[in-house]
Structures are given as structure tokens and as C-alpha cells.
Design brief:
The protein is of the alpha+beta class and 176 residues long. The protein contains six helices and seven strands. It has a four-stranded antiparallel beta sheet with strand order 1-2-3-4, with helices on both faces. It has a three-stranded antiparallel beta sheet with strand order 5-6-7. The longest helix has 23 residues, at 74-96.
Length: 176
Amino acid sequence: MNKAGLRNWVEQNKQADEQILWAGSPRMVYFRGLFFTRVIPGLVLLGLAVWFHYGAPGIPLADWAMFLTDSFPREIVFVLGLLFVLLPFLRAYMLRHTFYIITNRRVFKARVLSNRVRQLPLETVAKARRIDYPDGLSSYIFDVWEDGPHRHEQVTRGIYFVRPDFTEALEKAMKG
């Protein structure tokens, strides 16, 4: 769904006294820390996969690289490296193509690859944990839960990297 499609959907499904206060997308955010934790290791893995495939005659591999060549097929190392490099770009694309509309009663959210519109009451967004970043962007975290069998990873659901005008419109909706 695109921005115009979401606006049309909201216009058709809004309540009698509901007014649209703001419509927009998050600001484009490329890495936000993912560069060092995903892209650089992914490039290292890609380099190792190429090295494993073509070999480097006369250049001995370090012990950890020998472990990788003996333990994992080079195709797996290549695919892992490729995923590490491409996933931050996919995440940035998805974030850029997420659209929000704030009304005086609800917040609507839609993504480009989905026809589903998510509706959040203003109270839910107002009670969310707000994270302010130095560049003026904010995120609102609704749910945090532990994931996995050992509960070692936190998964969050929320509204990410919104511009200051989103926050201002949300505050205006809460007052009015």
C-alpha cells in the first residue's frame, strides 16, 4: 500500500468526528549502528568466501580462517555474508516505505509490501516508551518481549525513526 492508498483507506474508514492531523513517513535512516555489527562482518565473510573459493596460493590462512574453511561449506559462508550486507538495506527500504497517519483518535500504519493497515489507539502510542535520538528523530516502543528458547534476544514492536513533526502532531492529537 502506498501513501495515497492509505490516505484513501483512512478517509473511507474514519469515524464521524475523526480528522486527519498528519500523514508521512519516517526519515530515511541507513544504518544506525548496523554498519559495524552487520555490514562490516558481512564484508569480511564475503571476502573469506571468495578467498575460500578461489584460494590464495602461497598465502597461509590464519587458524580461525582454517577453522571456517574446515567447518562450513564456502557457500554457507557466502550466503551469510551476503545476508549480513543486504539486510540493513532491506530494513532501510521497508522503513522508508512505511506510512503513518495520525488522526485525533488513532494512528494508522501501513507498509509497502503489505495491504494490512494497523490501527493503534492514541493511548497506546502515548503510553509507549519514547526514545529520542540526537538528530531529532524519535521511536516509540510498544511491546518488548523475550524471544528464543533461552530468552536471550529482545524483540520490539513500535514506530521507528519518526520526524519531529510526527511527535508534534501526536502531542497535538493527545491534547485535542
